[in-house]
Amino acid sequence: MSTIRPLATIFMRSSALLSVVAFCLLPQCLAAETLGPAGGTGGTSATSGCGTLVVPAPFYRTAPFMLIGVAGRSGNWVDQIRGICMRFDGVNRIAIWRGNPTQGASFGGQGGEPFQRVCPRNQAVVGFRGRAGFYVDRLQIGCQAFSDSGQPIGAVTWLTPVGGTGGAPFGPLRCAANGAVQFLSGRGGSYVDSIGLECTAFQFDFKSDNE
């Protein structure tokens, strides 16, 4: 495959906020946004991440599940990818990991070598950057800590990138305000053709079930 990538095949927005959709759930509404996608139009659509995007309010009463990393296979391109998720809980005004990580479904092919990139302890994925053309050539994930009120804390931590040096650069794209990532979305076949991040508000709901 030629390493020359027409810029027209890179499907991404210049703004980090590609779309914002309000999923209204009684007794509360959760806002969601999509970062990207970056890459081409081949393959089939797929998602990988933490539960379902539209969730009942009680899901957030004690601890949300968020993306804390990615795993898969890579070489000159990102061959395969899946999300790594962790439940969060609020302790001493800080959002911390609780329990064991879980992994979402993979999409892409079987080439390349295995990789895993996980955020520093108690951080969640909040953004990404990399290079892309017909496929996703290179991917780098950004992480950040949160308070138990859902506010980001400190600077974004960028993990070691995976993939090659082809394609054209994209990003960095970051979830707006107090958003963190729950899902990877994109297209996959023999490689990861495109990649996007699905953000939602990082929030705990401390109301009792009787309210």
Concise summary:
The chain has strands at residues 19-25, 28-39, 44-49, 65-74, 78-91, 94-103, 107-108, 113-118, 123-132, 136-146, 152-158, 162-163, 168-174, 179-188, 192-201. With 211 residues, the chain is mainly β.
Return the structural class. mainly beta
The averaged pLDDT comes out at 81
> Number of helical segments?
0
Characterize the biggest β-sheet.
Answer: 5 strands, antiparallel
The CATH class name reads Mainly Beta
Task: Using the CA coordinates, give the radius of gyration.
Answer: 17 Å
Q: What portion of residues is helical?
A: under 10%
**In what order do the strands lie side by side in the largest sheet?**
1-2-15-14-3
- Total number of β-strand segments? 15
* Integer count of domains: 1
CATH fold naming: Vitelline Membrane Outer Layer Protein I, subunit A
Give the termini distance in whole angstroms: 59 Å
Low-pLDDT windows of residues: 1-30, 52-61, 207-211
